[in-house]
Amino acid sequence: MSAITSVIKDGQTYALFCSKQLSTDGACFVTEEKDAFQVGVLERPKGYRVEPHQHTERPAHISTVSEFLYIEKGSIRVTVFDEQWEELERHELSAGDFLLFLRGGHALEVLEDARIVEVKQGPYPGPESAKIFQKEA
Q1: pTM (2 decimals)?
Q2: Architecture of domain 4-44+62-120
Q3: Are 7 and 89 within 8 A, CB to CB?
Q4: Minimal CA–CA distance to 98: which of 18, 16, 37?
């Protein structure tokens, strides 16, 4: 996997896969400014400081939930789908890699015992309305 691999269809980014090999010079945001979810990698030298701050409130309309996964240990295989369940790509990730789902669907298979950190927008609507599952053909 290259440092950043984008899964794109019809000009829309469905997912971003980022290798642990991704190097930055300070800060590297893998998302675009227009994306509803922002992910960046920061490398800072010892002694670097971020001044105390708060983020401004701003209204936001979220039409799709983004999901960030960091593979702390183990390995997984991920399949990315568009909104019609057409398979777009498959990727394998291992410890230190991370990914961001921005739209469409996805599936995950654990290849080696894994510890995965997941981050997504809330609030959580409950198990009945949080996900749409692919129907068997």
Answers
A1: 0.87
A2: Sandwich (2.60)
A3: yes
A4: 18
